[in-house]
Amino acid sequence: MEIKAVTGELTGIKAGAIIVNHFEGMKRPDGDAAAVDKALDGAISRLIKQGDIKGKLNEVTLLHNPGKLPASRIAVVGLGKKKELNINKVRGTIAETCRYLRGKGVTSVATGAQGAGINGIKIDDAAQAATEGALLGLYTFRRYITKKENNSGEIKEFMIVGQPKVTLTKAIARGRILAEAANWARDMVNEPGNFMTPTHMAEASQELAEKYGLKIEVLDKEKMAELGMGGLLGVSQGSQQPPKFIILSYKGSDSDKVDAALVGKGITFDSGGISIKPSEKMSDMKGDMAGGASVLATLIALAQLKPTINVTALVPATENLPSGTALKPGDIIKAMNGKTIEVLNTDAEGRLILADALSYAKKLNAKAIIDVATLTGACMVALGNTCTGAFSNNQELTNKVIAAGNETGELIWQLPMFDEYKEQLKSDIADIKNIGGRYGGAITAAKFLEEFINGTPWVHLDIAGTSDTDKEKGYLVKGATGVPVRTLVNVILSLAKK
Ligand code: BES
Ligand code: MN
Ligand code: ZN
Q1: What is the 351 CA–ligand 1 centroid distance (Å)?
Q2: At what angle do helices 165-190 and 123-137 cross, to 10 degrees?
């Protein structure tokens, strides 16, 4: 989709559809909607008066232009109550409107920078949000559908009308970088497990490195053994697919230091292993590498935005399958940092591979560590599908992550890390065991990870509930969400600023 900034009046634009807005509770059209209303001899006013247009958030009313404007159709979109409008609603509304128009066969769309000037929303943020909304909302994953669709087309052109043009053009470029990175992660996560193997993840990372000039290293089994990565090797030993440890680096500053390590869980399929999961919904576990995909995708955006900072993404990638060679409940393994782990449940595998990856981040001397993982069903029980869970040893870094999440609409809620929770992880015969008791599972998982952090400022993000969705809503479509790519990019930008 081509997205461009256009100066001039929306009413003068030739397009398949132009988008104007209406706020809930307003008696008459305003701004662009008023101009269109005038050209259409009060058509919008009449619909408002009749109650057909209420202005409720995401309500779309389509008017056919009786030849008085260059555009073929006018979509009047509800933005809800004016006082409650925020940037995330703009993203969602543009997404819903674009999907609606695509369904009507519209191929070119123009809109003003919806929301600009309202509740302190700046025009560049509005234009960026519209760009993100359009690209994220129109995302599809159809590569395995052989029947080509002919009824629902594609929006090929999206115009944002306003000024100054340079500001809009820059905002569009930024929105595109963020949304396309998130959509890359979505593609990775939606890909089924038979294609998205650890080897495929490594190859996709190699391609990114070449395309964006990033540094890459992929460790194989031999190297893992040399480094003592007993967690990753242990989880992978039940699978026929070789594990990979992906190290992708963005270098934006002259220093040799790693300013931030982004660690992502890369379980390309989680059957649970010998502690096998129930078969219902097991297929969802093809997405258990969403954390890994998100940290790789973050580097795509950084390579284009070029902040002055060095960031390394680390992804331990493997399948978790049962077999005659698989880890068994009760086995003891040794992580890269030398700690021994009693594996009482082979389905708590994410923390085992992260133990090595976090140890590796420590070895790199990373100044800050953020890990992202579809780690626990318990986090989903606690927070539902609305927020990602945050767990940390450092409030300053956590505040930055949460603030970045608020900007992007990828909501994050912090959960406690009291040492009392750690008691559940005491093992009688090893340094630590990999499961706690029945309750507080998201927190005990985080306390487990903390054992491999040793004081470095660190935030763990549990995206079990937020990495995919079964509902189409706002800029989310069914399947992978791309969470928390846009947030991670913002966090890194804020770290680079200081
Ligand atoms: N990948 C799962 C967590 C998960 C569950 C993510 C549902 C997304 C949706 C993880 O490896 C897992 O199986 N965790 C166990 C841990 C338990 C055995 C301590 C869980 O949450 O049940
Ligand atoms: Mn598991
Ligand atoms: Zn898992």
Answers
A1: 10
A2: 30
Is the distance from the beta carbon of residue 318 to the nearest atom of ligand 1 less than 6 Å? no
Closest ligand to Cα 433: 1
Q: How far is the CA of 299 from the centre of ligand 2 (A)?
A: 26
For ligand 1, say whether the CB of 435 is within 6 Å of any of its atoms.
yes
Q: What is the mean pLDDT of residues 436-443?
A: 97
Which residues crowd ion ligand 2, with CB under 5 Å?
Answer: 270, 347, 349
Q: Are 367 and 495 in contact (CB under 8 A)?
A: no
Handedness of CA 272, 273, 274, 278 (dihedral sign): positive
Identify the CA nearest to 431 among candidates 335, 361, 328.
Answer: 335
Residue 196: pLDDT over 90: yes
Domains of the chain listed by start with CATH number: 2-180 (3.40.220.10), 196-497 (3.40.630.10)
C-alpha span between 253 and 269 (Å, rounded): 36
149: pLDDT strictly greater than 90:
no
Q: What is the pLDDT of residues 468-480, one digit of tens each?
A: 999 999 999 999 9
Indicate which residues carry an active-site annotation: 277, 351
Contact yes or no for 425/433 (Cβ under 8 A): yes
168: its two tokens: 């809009």
pLDDT exceeding 90 applies to what percent of the chain? 98
Residues belonging to the chain:
498
Q: Identify whether the C-beta of residue 466 lies closer than 8 Å to the C-beta of residue 388.
A: yes
Any atom of ligand 1 within 6 Å of the Cβ of 425: no
Terminal CA-CA length for the chain: 35
Closest among 297, 287, 83 to 182, alpha carbons compared:
297
